[in-house]
Predict the 3D structure of the following.
Amino acid sequence: MKRKGLVLISMMLILSLVLTACGGGKETPKETNNESTGESTGEPTKARDKLVIATSSDAITMDPVQNNDSFSGNIMAQVYDGLVKIDMEGNIEPSLAESYEPSEDGLTYTFHLKEGVKFQNGEELKASDVVFTFKRAIEAPAVAHIFGDIDPDSLKAVDDYTFQFSLKEPNAGIIAALCHPAAFIVNEKAVTEAGDNYSRNPVGTGPFILKSWSKSNKMELTKFDDYYGKEPEFNTLEVRVIPEATNRVIELETGGVDIAYDISPNDVSRIEGNNDLQLFRTPDYGTLYMGMNTQKEPLNDIKVRQAISKAIDVEEIVGAIWRDVGKPASAPYTSTIKYSLAEENEPNKKDIEGAKKLLKEAGYENGLSLTITTNDRQERIDAATIIKEDLKQIGIDVTVEVLEWSAFIEKLESGQHDLFMISWISDSPDPDMVVYPCFHSSMAGPGGNYAFLNDPEVDDLIIKGRRTLDGPEREQVYKDLQERVMDLSPAVFLYNSEIVIGARNDIENIELTPFGYHRLYPITFKK
């Protein structure tokens, strides 16, 4: 349970996110792309007009309301802006909105837009675009849960620069929800004209325009000259998809990329020992878990799910794979999010005899076969492999299935899976941003509830948490909710993640955020 002291600790962690690079500037090799391999030739140049990023997976879409994944959010954060945003101290501040205020009853919110802001198609931002944006978001299955308390009939352009909406019911986290990428403002004309092609032809108010996208290989973005904010120092942003962690580090070492995301624990010391590189680390809002499809036999039997849980030792897995990066999970969400039980609970322990007993009671004393589905991130494959061996001890034969990110998400959304490995990273420190999409029955499949959990008590607690203002009563709701979820065993919570990024030494002003995507446009190069 998070008390005042833990809140202070959380704020101190968030304060530590503003990281400024140090070290001597060096001439870095020029990146020349090979379309078939995604590797660079490393030809040297002094030009620093381009920033090159290596990421482990491609974006799924560039339409804010089509999907709810961090890889898409990472790119959309360079193209779009929202009405508000979370700053590096964890505070919510205006962005496209110059200011905003709630009504006395807390149900109506009025936003005053900045004037003269241009979209990347030359259109000026107007309140009508904001109305259009939220109408789309409220109706979109992937993100509707974030905005479900907004009355769609209340969306109103009071004038060209004033937007207003009302809530159907109180929602303690509604302003935090507006920081989510799904609330990035789109241009009505651009969306209407592009139709089904909009997801690959985004138009925002952000500092970069998507120029080209070679799926599962590379994205190239160019600077938007009419951006209303501070002009980025570089004209081109290139995002390269390099799934193998070691290959991302090699590209970083040779200068093929300037920044590499998702550094493997195996490569941390390698980067720390290289004087040409720098390492950035910070706790995030993410939890990796092995989920179970509760609507599919035999996982619809709670005894089977509990048996699987008892066969797994979380500390053993985290120690073997992540070592000193992040920490073992002990609750449905991490201690950096409000009201978590992570500091009170112990990580899941192994109890082979207890697991066998439960399987026998469920009628599976002769064993059964299951598949663990994961994306192609190595740490998740390794965790699935360890779990495979753990479950073998209780007579469960496991196949590990590895899919590319978009195919992985498509399978989870369709409910075809048995067990699965995934992380959920909240876009704010409010617990509603985790528990509603992951555990509310209305979110089964595309909404994020990949365990297809359907429990009336869980649903009621989630809604009660939304309706209750921050304080002891809300804290107790989320404590009860987490305990209920753990009793139902829809997942084994494995790992509270840490963001680990490597960069060349001539990169400055990297801002790491705990919510899964990072604004790259403040980055500068050491002269």
Notes: The CA atoms of residues 286 and 425 lie 4 Å apart.
